[in-house]
Amino acid sequence: MKLELGFIEIKDVQFSNECAVKDGILYVNPDQVKEFVYENDDVRQYLKSINFDIAKPGESVRITPVKDVIEPRVKVEGPGGVFPGVISKVDTVGSGRTHVLRGCAVVTAGKIVGFQEGIIDMTGPGADYTPFSKTLNVVMIVEPVEGTKQHDYERAVRFAGLRAATFLGELGRNVTPDEVKTFETYGIKEGLEKLPGLPRVGYLHMLQTQGLLHDTYVYGVDAKKIVATLLNPTETMDGAILSGNCVSACDKNTTYHHLNNPVVAELFEEHGKSINYVCNIITNENVYLADKQRSSDWAAKLAKLLDLDAVIVSEEGFGNPDADLIMNCVKNEKQGIKTVLITDEYAGQDGKSQSLADVSPLATAVVTGGNANMVINLPPMDKVIGTLDYVDIIAGGHAGSLQPDGSIDAELQIITGATNEMGFNRLSAR
Amino acid sequence: MSFRVVHYINQFFANIGGEEMAHVAPELREGAVGPGMAFNQQWKGEAEVVKTIVCGDSYFAEHEKEAKEQVLAWVKEAKPDLFIAGPAFNAGRYGYACANVALAVKTELGIPVLTGMYVENPGADLKDKVLMVATANSAAGMRKAAPAMAKLGLKLAKGEPLAASCVDGYMPNGVRVNFFEKERGAKRAVKMLIAKIKDEAFVTEFPMPNFDRVEPGKAIPDMSKAVVALCTSGGIVPKGNPDHIESSSASHYGEYDITGWDALTAEGWQTAHGGYDPVYANADPNRVLPVDVLRQMEKEGKIGKLHNKFYTTVGNGTAVASSKKFAEEYAQKLLKDGVQAVIMTST
Amino acid sequence: MVKEVERVGIPVVHMCTITPISLTVGANRIIPTIAIPYPLGNPTLEPADEYALRYKLVSKAIEAFTIPVEQQTVFDV
Asked: Closest-CA residue in chain B for C29?
């Protein structure tokens, strides 16, 4: 399957009377975006208000509580549309051509959904830990209708963000991209002919599916209800996988991460040179042992069926998903498929505790996104988008996290994307 | 103000002598001796070795309690800002002494401590408790070790927080510290994967906790029928060391037949080990490999049979990986020969 | 090395002087011995007494094989 990505560099975002992308500037009329967002039953029913703001790199701005981050994209050629099964109709995506508004993002924020939303600081020490201090952010501050149940609210916010991103992405349909890159993987036979002798590598992508607002969706399907299955890597670039989860901010994969999956990107860098990047295997992280065993069995079975030589396994979240991670490692290593794991650590604030809930001597190659328990002080910002009301209770915060001067003492956990387990960041630990 | 440092070294680095002088008791000297001068040079006056404690390696190993007490008393009196031991490179007993004496100073006196040695030095087992700089496996590595230890030592004396082990150059000590890598995680993962596919070396970012323990072997209720074999890391070999087993960092092991020997004699056997005083083992090799006693037990029916072959290695400076490889090999031979129990002696 | 032998199913008694190292390297049955250069002897003793000492230590080792152990054990001598 072959996909062209046309990157349109966004250099600035401005509010305006019109909505357009011109000379690298994204002009946003909030009313028009809102109108499109509200053309959805859930949004209409559960969201009382949506307000827009803009946060730019380097500004003294704190966004919290952050739920999801989404990159605007539009499908310009080929079957389907972005976010199939959710925003667009169900159709296999990942081929043809897609335009990307690179450098900007839609951020959903506002009244808390669960207790695991995060913080994005656009400057200061916190900014070093989140990739979204480097993007031009169109922030949506949402407010639910009183009495809205948690999961209804979560779904409505999810749809609101995706619809806004889709609307903005559409503005890039007829813009000539600044850069075009082609991504292509092959069927089994074709791959063997085109790339003879190269080691066959897969990406075993673990999706957070613990339920209770910790969910991930694939073509609109709640991933806790799937067994491990296959995906062309390019499908992820069109939004086949999206985040519906409110797990700890530092190591949840936002929809932005899924669209820009760094493992997919780095495997493509080596594809055809030192490896044959065959495909992605997606699997879940369910709460029952039988589910964990079944899913890891299936993932390993598919890897063997595809004659893979090696896989990269990325985790999402921590705690009992560590058991899934180790099962995915052990079952593949035992059938001769080499593994590299990407995880993060919960080694305690002093760094002295056992980092993972499960370990195995077969996990010989591990990349870490850092210790999420590290304590960080976030100085006050001139402006807060959203509210500081929840800082003390979101994961990573503690009673007294928020200081009278507006500074925050909290664990790295609280920062959106800080210890990402797809390896999005440079942060590590030893 | 210059930070005050007390430095611990062994008889060899104090120029007293090698193995033959390893028995010397602790001695306190003013100022820097040997490697301490290299530290002073690095510190350029910011810190200075004010006292040097010299102790023989065998003395420490055999009188650990007394040696520690003496060292602690001297360190307490000197009131240093930092205590440095070694570097010990791959000298096993020196490393053991450095690590243990440093640990005592840290826990008893609350003074920051630092040592340095080769990662496979047995003393490095304490790396989670005592900060250690990884050095080369021989004293030739002093030129690199001295600046690394001096830099880290100064940081300790100043009370500055440590950066990650790979940044500050100490052995991973179980305390996880965050830092920014040059490349993002996914790129590091792909590089690691390619190295792993090609069977090339790579370094995991999170070593799995130490789980290398083996279930204790089953008890043998009746030893009177058991075939017992002897193995040793004490380097007992036939006189003249016909297979040229190296005295340190051995590249192979020895397999020797003791059929017909009621005891090992000084005429027939010797040690090839370079890490301890060989006089006693050469005078009576049964002191390391008790063939004489086991022969008697065989006659008395206390054991079924003494296996006619023994396996010997030199533990001194030999990499753990090599020792492991040797033992894996001869374990198979022992199994094949029907050996039921193994007495392993170490020096 | 002790571990590698025990791994194939042969019980090992490790006789050594620096027992903490023996514990670290993973020996399960440990008999403490006399000194590094002469683990199973003592040159200051009369030959007969030295032999008796060695006999006693090795007897302890033989006895250690007969005792079931669940974890790393340093036997008293």
From this structure: B216
